[in-house]
Specification:
single chain, mainly alpha, Jann2411-like fold, 6 strands, about 10% strand, binds zinc ion, ABATE, Znf_CGNR
């Protein structure tokens, strides 16, 4: 299963590693090595980090806390205090180290620094009153994304992931309807 990074924020991309959360959740992070692979693929994170069992559990609880806060934010509710504690504690750890060289930006740090970075990214977004968080418009896709489009008119988490699938299904339905009325 491939990871996708379409949410517009790495904290939301982490939350998006659980798909179809309402009807039959699919968790792409089943074991620590899945998280190691996710970190390696996520833009802006170190190429490799070691994840042990305890750190893995911590990362999953940060993921669920971020998702809960995103839901609270979208629904205009008070932010869940337990989730706030988890995210704020992760963000209080030392962040990733970035260095500039001829080859570009080099990012380094361990998993705690990665989680700190993700928590800080989530905080910057969730604390921004202008940030427009939405759930994907495809039925069954529960991915939350940051809509930065002009007029906030984005409907899907990603065109490849959901937009084109919905459009193709609508096209097939129209063709079927046209055939049936002939
Ligand atoms: Zn989607």
């Amino acid at each position: 299963m491939d990871f996708t990074f379409v949410s517009g924020n790495p904290a939301l991309d982490l939350a998006g590693t659980v798909g179809s959360r309402r009807d039959g959740p699919v968790d792409l992070l089943a074991v620590p090595s899945d998280l190691e692979r996710w970190v390696a693929e996520c833009p802006g994170l170190p190429g490799s980090v070691a994840v042990d069992a305890a750190a893995f559990e911590g990362a999953l609880s940060l993921r669920e806390a971020i998702y809960q806060l995103a839901l609270d934010r979208m629904n205009g509710r008070r932010l869940d205090s337990g989730s706030l504690d988890i995210v704020n504690q992760a963000a209080a750890r030392p962040p990733l180290v970035v260095a500039l060289g001829d080859a570009g930006i080099r990012v380094s740090g361990d998993l705690a620094a990665v989680l700190s970075h993700l928590a800080r990214s989530g905080i910057a977004m969730l604390g921004d009153p202008q940030a427009c968080l939405k759930e994907c418009g495809r039925a069954g896709c529960t991915r939350v994304y940051l809509d930065r489009s002009r007029g906030a008119r984005r409907t899907w988490c990603g065109m490849d992931e959901c937009g084109n699938r919905v459009k193709a299904a609508a096209y097939r339905a129209r063709m079927r309807a046209a055939t049936n009325t002939r």
